[in-house]
Amino acid sequence: MQDNVFSKQASEKFYIEADFSLVMTSGETVDLTNSSVTAKDKDGADKSSTVLDSATKAVSSSDKGLVIRVQAGSVSESPYKLTFLLLTQQGSTWELDVMMHLVDL
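-> structure tokens emitted (105 positions)
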């Protein structure tokens, strides 16, 4: 994902990627088990189980990021803050926040 902000409609489901390739060093590997992606609504309530399909969390095709499928959501709870927390087997930790706006067109 290039931008840290995107919009979607409630019915849309698609994958997004957090790319950490600019900060990961050569030879580092993602620790998928301990890495996480969470979602909070505009009031700070945890909505991870509503707007994220946690079963789809995976290492990106570049091996330098995380991928997850976003789904559902509510315009009244928008925007959502998605937090990608990537840990590596070598002990590094990086975080990327992405804002997801729900729109009703």
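Strands lie at 5-8, 14-19, 36-40, 52-59, 65-70, 80-87, 93-102.
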